[in-house]
Amino acid sequence: MCREVLEEVGLTVTRSSLLGVYSDPKATVTEHPVLIGGQPTHIHFVVAVFVVEGFSGAVTPNEEVDGWGWFARGRAPNPMIRSHPIRLEDFWAGARGVVR
Fold first, then answer.
1. Which end of the chain is more exposed for a tag (fewer CB within 10 A), N or C?
2. Which ranges constitute the DSSP H helices of the chain?
3. 34-36 and 39-41 beta bridge pairing
4. How far is CA 57 from the centre of its chain?
5. Alpha-carbon gap, residue 60 to 58, rounded angstroms
6. Domains of the chain
């Protein structure tokens, strides 16, 4: 995760914890099929979400990040990907090590 954060946004993670592992098909299976090998297929994602509790550096814009921001509770952008609200709820509840 630390390498990905550094590559994606230019921040060095100094402290983190596992928020949870999310695989509920209602939120992590693609709504519409994608073509794999010419066959329409739904994809099921299993996602590990980490909370970055300490970092150094500054966000560096690049071709993979079209925007970023810090948002207070209840002020996240809308609409958002359907799997994200439960993760935000867990974060704001102080949960760690969740499996859903």
1. N
2. 2-9, 25-28, 84-92
3. antiparallel
4. 20
5. 6
6. 2-99 (3.90.79.10)
Evaluate if residue 13 carries a pLDDT over 90.
yes
| AA identity, residue 72 | A
In whole angstroms, give the CA distance from residue 6 to residue 3.
5
User: 61: Cβ–Cβ under 8 A, 6 or more apart, which residues?
Assistant: none
Whether residue 36 is predicted with pLDDT greater than 90 in this model: the reply is yes
- How confident is the model over 28-33, as a mean pLDDT? 89
Give the pLDDT confidence of 44-66 residue by residue, as tens digits: 999 999 999 999 999 988 888 87
Q: Which residues pair with 51 in a beta bridge?
A: 17
* Single-letter residue type at 22: Y
In 10-67, which residue ranges form alpha helices assigned H by DSSP?
25-28
